[in-house]
Amino acid sequence: MKFILGKIQRKRKEVGGFRNLFLHTAFALTLTSGLSYALGLLRDKSFAYTFGASSELDIYNAAFAIPDLFLALLVTGTLSAAFVPIFSNLDEHNRQKGILYTNQILSFGLLILGAVAVLFGLFLPHLVDFIVPGFDAEQKAQYVTVTRLMLISPLLFAISNTFGNVLISIKAFFWYGMAPVLYNVGIIIGVFVFVPHFGLLGLVIGTILGAFLHLGVRIPSLIRYGYRPQFVFIYNQEIRETVWLLIPKTVQMGMWQLMLWWFVRLATELEEGSVTIYSFARNFQSLPVSLVGIAMALAAFANLSHVAANKDYREFKQLILGKSLIIMGYTTLAAIGLALISHPLIGLLLGGGKFDAQAVAATASLLMVYTIAVPLESVMHLLARAHYALKNTLRPSSIHVITIVLTMVISAYFLDKIGLYAIPVSFAAGLLVQVLLLGVSLRQLILKLGSNEGVYGVKH
User: Fold this and answer.
1) How many CB atoms neighbour CB 271 within 10 A?
2) Is the alpha carbon torsion for 23, 29, 30, 31 positive or negative?
3) Distance in angstroms (rounded) separating the CA atoms of residues 77 and 386
4) What is the pTM of this model?
């Protein structure tokens, strides 16, 4: 305890006080991610106890796939690849231009996303046999109703994620990280307040409530920053640059969501509860990825973007090497620990109620295989964002598409041979190839940029 307190004190001095430590550093992201996952465990426990590994929970989990795909294709790709570097550059010179750019992204994004959501909702009954082929007729009817309601969430997340990327750019990490915390709060309220009265639809109501809370907690920081909402449909240089950067990233994000839908689709073809078991195992596997990998990658992204803007490639390379080693070290230890305690952990946190011993054993064994991917997925986020900081989305996106296709082929091949285990095995194999290719690509890109600007960014 003395060691931990001493480390916090040293970190406080480095960053300029407790306020900065808790609001504006990677520690804030780790803290809020930890809180979010604690509530996520409570959420999953309530799911397992109330529904078990049932068809109702299979339908709920499957209903996320297509709305998440639309959000990734039309909004998230733009924000993760283009928004932070462009906004950071505008904010450095003129805050009002940064605010204008934010409103432009929101205006175009909501218009396109809203139109796509309406069209998909109308045509969903004609597509349901392809999307979830393993569901029976009653399950498919419920899936259509639930998915149509869930299409509200991407619109709310489009706004919230845009605001969140502004907060990343200005290093307001705490309020960025609190959004998923409140999202889980909304879902938990749905389980205990709305499900007893409305059943599965009550769970959907809670999810939409969580999306509203996700957005709401980020608004005060944006207002303090000076943001005011306005519809702006101006196609200027920043939007042209955004479009150029987002095309490869949109393909990448779309392929990632396509892979997740593919996993759900495969799971629907196995026994009842397979979608739920897969979803629970994936949630636990993503815990160390988010607490360490994504948190550190997000915190490093803002620094990398500013260092890249100054063309200091020596410092850029040092940042990447240092963060990669730290992420790999911590997440490898976390993966080993998670694998060792997977069965008692699942039994403690999910067991009970309708989630019986057989479901606990199936989820725990799947999680053990899934932990192989923890360090690989963690460092992948950093290497991809390092490319974005250099305003290069084509390379990581191309690599991503290739490895996703490989992952889907491997999973389909092994489904009949090893059942649900085909999902984590193929996921880890695809990530291994992706990390190796990203590392080679980033090294080549830094060398190329360094030679163009002089040795490590010092101009001739």
Assistant:
1) 12
2) positive
3) 15
4) 0.73
